[in-house]
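Sequence in, structure out. First:
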Amino acid sequence: MNTFHWFRESGPVLWIILACGVAAVGVFLERMLHLRRAAISHRDFLQGVCNVIDRGNVEEALQICEEAPGPVPALIRAAILHRHEARHVLVEAIGNVGRAEIARMERRVAVIATIGQIAPLLGLIGTVFGMIETVMVLRDQQPLIYAVHITDGLLRALITAAAGLIVAVPCFLMHNLLLVQIDRLVLDMESVETEITAYLTARHQAEKAAS
């Protein structure tokens, strides 16, 4: 019996498991590309924006942040827009943008975790169906029972169980890889938040003292 015949004879549960696996891979690739694109050199970017602000080109700094991808430019842009506010207002504005950016990065990541959790359960359902079919065949074919009467249902049960595990394991790996990328970006965001807040606060105080 070739592999194609196994797929054809394994019933709808197997195809549902495979469809879930394909969906998980699609989400993973889309999210990974999005996160890789967002992972810029935050220190170099922040330094460049600060240099532009020091030259008095605030509008240019805002435009640079708007054109750059990722959460770090969004945080810096929010900070620049609130640069003349009190420190607690500035921190709150940056925090609001940061939470929104984290939610955007985590979008659809839960889909992969969900598929990783339900795939073994779907495999278990397929196993139960295969065992039920085997028992029904044994009941209908007694007292003359041949090996073929038993093996078809058992094979279907084993294939669906294996498929559920085969899909679940990569899903957990993909989910963890995405979380690692998100955590790295969050650390970059926290570093930038501290630095841009200190920079703009000191600059604002200097401007007030000079005026």
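Second:
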Amino acid sequence: MITAIVLVNTERTRINEVAERLAEMDGISEVYSVSGKYDLIAIVRVPDNDALADLVTSKLLRIESIVKSETMLAFRAISRHDLETMFSIGM
């Protein structure tokens, strides 16, 4: 499983519309509206690099209201939530 974080800038009047379109896409598990340099953050979970390439270079390009995006590949997930779950079941 490949996990990536896509930082997205949109046309200002289209943030909610773009967020909804992203959330409907296969491979995008979560979309956050955020403050700061970017308008949206999309969490991508796909089976392989080919699926990631298709999503980023084909499907995202079809959303004309996206002005700019930056994709970051996750190497490793380190989650306090996961650690707490392991300890609660006796691992």
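Remark: The beta strands are 2-10, 28-33, 40-46, 66-73.
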